[in-house]
Amino acid sequence: MATSFAQIRSGLQVLAFATVLALTACASLPPPTAELATAQQAVARAGDADADQYAADEVSQARRALELAQAAMAQGREDEARSLAVQAAAVADLAHAYSRRAVADTELAQRRAEISQLRSRLGMEGGQ
Q1: What contacts 85, CB < 8 A, 6 or more positions away?
Q2: Quick check: helix, strand or coil at residue 53?
Q3: In what residue span(s) does the DUF4398 domain sit (predicted)?
Q4: Nearest 10 degrees: CA dihedral of 116, 53, 103, 65?
Q5: Within a domain: residue 13?
Q6: Count of domains for the chain
Q7: What per-residue confidence (pLDDT) applies to 123?
Q8: With bands split at pLDDT 50, 70 and 90, how would you rate the model's confidence at 39?
Q9: Per residue in 27-58, is it b (16+ CB within 10 Å) or e — as a string?
Q10: Residue 63: how many CA atoms within 13 Å on its side-chain side?
């Protein structure tokens, strides 16, 4: 019995699909350079927001995770580097938020004190 063109075509399709599937499974993610850059920016942003003063533990943790990510990248452990870089960015963003909140709370307290002083002056002036 002769092999038909349809059978050959079907076999080639299966072979092509298997090849694509194998290549996809073997393909790795690109190096985590974007994640490392994002983490570096997040740590810098936290530092610029005075996180060393207002969120020292968090910014320290973020810097350490970034250092570990960079070391893992240098040693070719890209998956670990990616994970650590994402962690560093997240913790740095948290430190940034804590710092911004502390600054806002300080400014709010100052404004409330100013309002209290103004009310006190107005009360004293109104009584004279």
Answers
A1: 32, 35, 36, 38, 39, 65, 66, 69
A2: helix
A3: 34-110
A4: -160
A5: no
A6: 1
A7: 85
A8: very high
A9: eeeeebeebbebbbebbebbbebbbeebbeeb
A10: 13
**In-domain check, residue 6:** no
Task: Read off the pLDDT of each residue in 53-79 and give the average, rounded to a whole number.
Answer: 96
Residue 52, in any domain of the structure? yes
Task: Identify the pLDDT of residue 8.
Answer: 58
What domain range is 34 assigned to?
Answer: 30-127
- Whether residue 15 is predicted with pLDDT greater than 80 in this model: the reply is no
- Distance from C-alpha of 109 to C-alpha of 91, rounded to nearest angstrom: 27
Q: How many residues does the chain have?
A: 128
What sign has the CA pseudo-torsion 20, 25, 26, 27? positive
Examine residue 9 and state whether it is found in any structural domain, yes or no: no
Q: Give the chain's mean pLDDT.
A: 85
Are the CB atoms for 46 and 93 separated by under 8 Å? yes
d(CA 11, CA 14): 5
101, containing H or E segment: helix 78-127
pTM of structure: 0.70
pLDDT bucket at 29, cuts 50 / 70 / 90? confident
